[in-house]
Write a structure and sequence with these properties.
Layout lengths: L6 H20 L6 E2 L2 E2 L3 H23 L14 H34 L8 H22 L14
Antiparallel strand pairs: 1-2
Helix pairs in contact: 1-2, 3-4
Length: 156
Amino acid sequence: MVRIRNSQDLAAGLFLILVAVLALVFSNNLPTGKLLNMGAGYVPRTLAWMLGGLGIIVAARGFTTDAPHDGPALTDWAWRPLLALTASILVFAFLLEWVGLAICVLITVAVSGLAAPGIRLTQSLAVGAALATLSVLLFIVGLGLPMHVWPEFGGR
């Protein structure tokens, strides 16, 4: 009989496998291409396969841990960080086109700051302003990605 020795590793591995499968499903309609001529789906699908492989390794540790005692049991979920970080990802996804990169990063960092009870809004906004500046410099100025820095009023 197979015995689970570390339920946290098993749960984490299964979660990584789930995310990898979802990424493969959602990137299925993107052209993959080849290594020298990458399509839009090449990197997401490659990363999904790597994440799935990592998930298998982590889940296997749940059965084969070398610790002299069984691993820690699953405990209650930390709902505040889970909800705040999920909300911050959704905020970024929905606001990027509407408000531009700078404001979107600022709001995303402020929402993700709600995950930790000790972080003040002013701290989140300061970090958000620094990350927004770096994001604009890297993605728009440095890489030349076709994104708006600020909201487009009257354009769309």
